[in-house]
């Protein structure tokens, strides 16, 4: 599942540096997550780091993906075969 940031985002800037894939960036009004880069931290951490640091709990499941799909995306992004 790649994640999405809701309009409850307060632009606190804590999620962006936590993303190991660089999937989070400042959008027009709030931060956004590029679903092509989001692996929910699979391959890096046990839990999504953006969710761990978000003070307003505005990061939710966006696109449903299996753990295998997320692992495959991680391998493509990092060039590491599992």
TrEMBL record:
Keywords (A to Z) from UniProt: 4Fe-4S, Electron transport, Iron, Iron-sulfur, Metal-binding, Transport
The entry lists its GO molecular-function terms as: 4 iron, 4 sulfur cluster binding; metal ion binding
Q: Where is the 4Fe-4S ferredoxin-type domain?
A: 1-29
InterPro entries (alphabetical): 4Fe4S_Fe-S-bd, 4Fe4S_Fe_S_CS, PSI_iron-sulfur_center, YfhL-like
The coenzyme or cofactor needed here is: [4Fe-4S] cluster
> Which PROSITE patterns does the record match to this protein?
4FE4S_FER_1 (PS00198), 4FE4S_FER_2 (PS51379)
Q: Where does the signal peptide begin and end?
A: none
So which domain of life are we looking at? Bacteria
Gene Ontology cellular component list = cytoplasm
Keyword presence, Plastid:
no
Q: What is this protein called?
A: 4Fe-4S binding protein
Q: Which organism is it from?
A: Sulfurirhabdus autotrophica
């Amino acid at each position: 599942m790649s994640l999405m940031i809701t309009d409850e985002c307060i632009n606190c800037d804590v999620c962006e540096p936590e993303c190991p894939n660089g999937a989070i960036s400042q959008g027009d009004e709030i931060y956004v997550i590029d679903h092509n880069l989001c692996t929910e931290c699979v391959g890096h951490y046990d839990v999504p780091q953006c969710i761990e640091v978000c003070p307003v709990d505005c990061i939710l499941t966006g696109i449903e993906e299996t753990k295998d799909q997320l692992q495959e995306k991680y391998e493509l992004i990092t060039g590491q075969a599992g």
